[in-house]
Amino acid sequence: QVQLRESGGGVVHPGGSLTLSCAASGSISEIAILGWYRLAPGNERELMSLSTRGSTHYGDSVKGRFTFSRDDARNTFYLQLDNLEPEDTAVYYCKAGSPVTGSWGQGTQVTVSS
């Protein structure tokens, strides 16, 4: 299993943007499923994006605002967050691998506040 490390979180005003990165300790080119999730206080874990070979599924609350991408040469995948809203405030986690045995990162805090 690869180890994952997120970065790119921070504090941003409503309408702003951030780019989250998830750097893997090894190759991601053969990993079939790459995902982003978030967890806000009092809420359940929410899917942001789930990317398999050739397609990416987005959670309903972020469709059209968040975009997944990957750079296999850098062993890194990304989540571009645009048009952020206060409701997007949460800890964002990346995941690589199967739903049961996949690796999780440690999380990065995103705070959207005026």
Structural notes for this entry:
The structure is a single chain. The protein has no helices and 11 strands. It is mainly β. It starts with a strand and ends with a strand. The model has no long low-confidence stretch (mean pLDDT 95).
Measured between the Cα atoms of the first and last residue, the distance is 39 Å
Net shape: globular
Separate helix tally: 0
Q: Would you tell me the overall average pLDDT?
A: 95
Which structural class do you get from the secondary structure elements? mainly beta
Q: What percent strand?
A: over 45%
Number of strands: 11
Ranges with pLDDT <50 over ≥5 residues?
A: none
Q: Tell me the helix content.
A: under 10%
Output the radius of gyration. 13 Å
**What is the H-and-E element order?**
EEEEEEEEEEE
Sheet having the most strands: 7 strands, mixed
List key phrases describing it.
114 residues; mainly beta; four-stranded antiparallel β-sheet; 50% strand
Short description:
With 114 residues, the chain is mainly beta.
Q: How does the SSE layout of this entry go?
A:
Layout: E1 4-7, E2 10-12, E3 18-24, E4 34-39, E5 46-52, E6 55-58, E7 66-71, E8 76-81, E9 90-96, E10 103-104, E11 108-112
Parallel strand pairs: 2-11
Antiparallel strand pairs: 1-3, 3-8, 4-5, 4-9, 5-6, 7-8, 9-10, 9-11
